[in-house]
Amino acid sequence: MANSKGKRRRFGAVRKLPSGRFQARYQGPDGLTRSAPETFASQTDADRWLVRKEAEIIDGKWKNPDDKVLFGVYADAWFKERDHPRAQRQRPAPSHPADLRGRGPE
Fold first, then answer.
1. What would the pLDDT profile of 30-53 be if each residue is shown by its tens digit?
2. What is the pLDDT of residue 81?
3. Which of 3, 53, 89, 91 is 20 to 30 Å from 18 at the Cα level?
4. Minimal CA–CA distance to 75: which of 86, 64, 59?
5. Maximum distance among all alpha carbons in the chain?
6. Share of the chain above pLDDT 70, in %
7. Nearby residues of 35 by Cβ (< 8 Å), 6 or more positions away
8. How far apart are CA 106 and CA 27, in angstroms?
9. pTM score > 0.70 for this model?
10. Of the candidates 30, 22, 31, 21, the residue with the CA atom closest to the CA atom of residue 50
11. Rounded Cα–Cα distance for residues 36 and 89 (Å)
């Protein structure tokens, strides 16, 4: 389908919304038409977003935005990326003997 200038885009589509902002859409590798998660102030911004999305698909780095990530999987990846060993946190010393109940040997 040709745009207003009579030229066809190579990848995706950009349209101007009644609000004056621009919406970018593309067909994903799964065959579904997907919209950008936000609208853009200029057509150039929308075009740039489409170029990056096309590059992700070509490079094999595209991720389906509908895929759900379990919190535990996300949290494990978050800790690994930040190199935060969970066991390094120090517990405060108990201030009362009753605080020792339920604690195993350290």
1. 899 999 999 999 999 999 999 999
2. 82
3. 53
4. 86
5. 82
6. 71
7. 23, 24, 25
8. 57
9. no
10. 22
11. 41
Mean pLDDT for the chain overall = 81
Phi, psi dihedral angles at 98 (to 5 degrees): -65, -25
Confidence of residue 100 (pLDDT cuts 50, 70, 90): low
Taking CA atoms, 26 is separated from 7, 18, 35, 42, 78, in Å, by: 17, 20, 7, 17, 30
The amino acid that residue 7 corresponds to is K
CA angle 41, 26, 36 (to 5 degrees): 40
* DSSP secondary structure string for all residues of the chain: ---TTS---SS-EEEE-TTS-EEEEEE-TTS-EEE-SS-BSSHHHHHHHHHHHHHHHHHT----TT----HHHHHHHHHHHHT--GGGPPPPPPSSGGGGTT----
- Name the pairing type of β-strands 22-27 and 13-16: antiparallel
CA–CA gap between residue 43 and residue 29 (Å, rounded): 24
